[in-house]
């Protein structure tokens, strides 16, 4: 997250494709794998990341964030960890707890070591070799979690100095992780504070990919001020697609001190080309970039304008995210675990930015005997649009399915929905359960949501619920 120091000349990509002679990955079928530039989960189903970054290492008490991030539709969370070289080390027990939170909330965990940020320019940063030491030191809690965990070796591993070592250092780190028995998909960040303005990662990605004996490495570009035009974004990502190399946008924002990134193109191009993206960040930013908080004070009911954009906007997480198929057939309840015993102080304190319209209190219809009830809540509202949630609760007996109905009084129109099949006829809408949330035990609940438009008035409708 630093402004580039110079403008790099455009390098040819011939080396990228010339060395990229690969076939099917050698990865065992126990976890994620890469083939022909795409990421697949353990069931062989293509997986496209849609999620956010969460600063766990500085806010270890915010364990509810995992459930809250999932509730807004994300399928992935990139979790900030510390190796102990710059910030207090996240213990093996703490990492195991993070993984359990991801699994309980049906999220894929991308675990990243943050202490490498800006190495070569920031004197406090550590090396990729030290980050590799960290992963090997906690290998016991990582092994066996290949279906749910991706290992991001080091965040933004070089600044704007000394980044010529990126190819060799990254290749060596991958080889050491494989020799240490880690078979997970590995993610690697670009140099230049993650933005790769020198094209070092772009032009040497093939070499790094082939250095992985399992051919199971994904490349991560961070898009801030360097990527402030559509042409720069589409050219960079498109070259990886042309070369058949896997690429994700591991961090990006809607604004930054080094320029104004084109988040609309990042999200639309990623959606059109099935490229994963992970926005920065859920909450807790400091040091002058508090505007990158998606929520105010970790409160999911207080999305900032950036939070509204990335979750509810065009090509946003809520509408485009698809849960990893490895969670199909299981229904763990979202959970939060007790905070770890160690609670290092955050490097920066959370600073609230903007607050959306107050949450509308839910309205509940009387429960029919042995049936279900439904309550309607406006979670967030902005000019011309809003996000609504409807909670369905079974009555005194278990149900096998449900249908909720409501009628808008002010011309509101639903454009997107999730966790239900929603259809409209005029101002009346009908929502039916999907396969995984129709069966509810007595008193149990499930929630579905939608994005809708409104103009002038947004009265809360009564919702009826019919059980089957």
Automatic annotation (TrEMBL):
Pfam families, alphabetically?
CBM_2, Cellulase
What top-level branch of life does the organism fall under? Bacteria
Amino acid composition bias (Pro residues), ranges on this chain: 335-369
Top-level EC class as recorded in UniProt: hydrolase
What keywords were assigned to this record? Carbohydrate metabolism, Cellulose degradation, Glycosidase, Hydrolase, Polysaccharide degradation, Signal
The record's section on PROSITE patterns has: CBM2 (PS51173), GLYCOSYL_HYDROL_F5 (PS00659)
What molecular function does GO assign, one term? polysaccharide binding
InterPro entries reported for this sequence? CBD2, CBM2/CBM3_carb-bd_dom_sf, CBM2_carb-bd_dom_sf, GH, Glyco_hydro_5, Glyco_hydro_5_CS
Signal peptide range equals 1-28
Gene3D superfamilies of this UniProt entry? 2.60.40.290, Glycosidases (3.20.20.80)
Q: Which reaction does it catalyse?
A: Endohydrolysis of (1->4)-beta-D-glucosidic linkages in cellulose, lichenin and cereal beta-D-glucans
Q: One GO biological process from the UniProt record?
A: cellulose catabolic process
Q: Where is the CBM2 domain?
A: 365-468
Q: For this protein, what is the EC number?
A: 3.2.1.4
Q: Which residue intervals make up region (Disordered)?
A: 323-372
Q: Which family is annotated?
A: Belongs to the glycosyl hydrolase 5 (cellulase A) family.
Q: Report what the protein is called.
A: Endoglucanase
């Amino acid at each position: 997250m630093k402004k580039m120091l110079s403008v790099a000349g455009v390098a040819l990509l011939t080396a990228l494709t010339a060395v990229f002679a690969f076939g099917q990955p050698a990865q065992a079928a126990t976890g994620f794998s890469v083939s022909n530039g795409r990421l697949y989960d353990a069931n062989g189903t293509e997986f496209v990341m849609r999620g956010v970054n969460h600063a766990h290492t500085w806010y270890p008490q915010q364990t509810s964030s995992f459930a809250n991030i999932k509730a807004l539709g994300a399928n992935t969370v990139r979790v900030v960890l510390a190796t102990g070289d710059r910030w207090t080390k996240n213990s093996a027990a703490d990492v195991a707890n993070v993984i359990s939170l991801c699994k309980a909330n049906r999220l894929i965990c991308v675990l990243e070591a943050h202490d490498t940020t800006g190495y070569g320019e920031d004197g406090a940063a550590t090396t990729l070799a030290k980050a590799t030491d960290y992963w090997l030191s906690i290998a016991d809690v990582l092994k066996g979690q290949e279906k749910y965990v991706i290992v991001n070796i080091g965040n933004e591993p070089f600044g704007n100095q000394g980044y010529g070592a990126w190819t060799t250092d990254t290749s060596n780190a991958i080889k050491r992780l494989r020799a240490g028995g880690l078979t997970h998909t590995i993610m690697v960040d670009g140099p230049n504070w993650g933005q790769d303005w020198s094209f070092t990662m772009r032009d040497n990605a093939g070499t790094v990919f082939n250095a992985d004996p399992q051919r199971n490495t994904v490349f991560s570009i961070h898009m801030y001020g360097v990527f402030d035009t559509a042409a720069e974004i589409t050219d960079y990502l498109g070259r990886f697609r042309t070369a058949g190399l896997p690429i994700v946008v591991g961090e990006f924002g809607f604004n930054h001190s080094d320029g104004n990134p084109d988040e609309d193109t990042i999200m639309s191009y990623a959606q059109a080309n099935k490229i994963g993206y992970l926005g920065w960040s859920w909450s807790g930013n400091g040091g002058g970039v508090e505007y990158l908080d998606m929520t105010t004070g970790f409160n999911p009911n207080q999305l900032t304008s950036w939070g509204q954009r990335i979750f509810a906007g065009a090509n946003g997480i809520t509408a485009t995210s698809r849960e990893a198929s490895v969670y199909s057939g299981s229904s763990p309840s979202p959970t939060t675990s007790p905070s770890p015993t160690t609670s290092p102080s955050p490097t920066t304190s959370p600073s609230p930015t903007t607050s959306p319209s107050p949450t509308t209190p839910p309205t509940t219809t009387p429960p029919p005997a042995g049936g279900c009830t439904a309550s309607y809540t406006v979670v967030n509202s902005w000019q011309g649009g809003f996000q609504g949630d409807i909670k369905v609760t079974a009555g005194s007996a278990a149900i096998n399915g449900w249908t909720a109905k409501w009628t808008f009084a002010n011309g509101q129109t639903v454009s997107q929905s999730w966790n239900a099949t929603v259809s409209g006829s005029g101002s009346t809408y009908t929502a039916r359960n999907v396969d995984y949330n129709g069966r509810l035990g007595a008193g149990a609940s499930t929630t579905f949501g939608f994005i809708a438009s409104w103009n002038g008035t947004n009265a809360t409708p009564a919702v009826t619920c019919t059980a089957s």
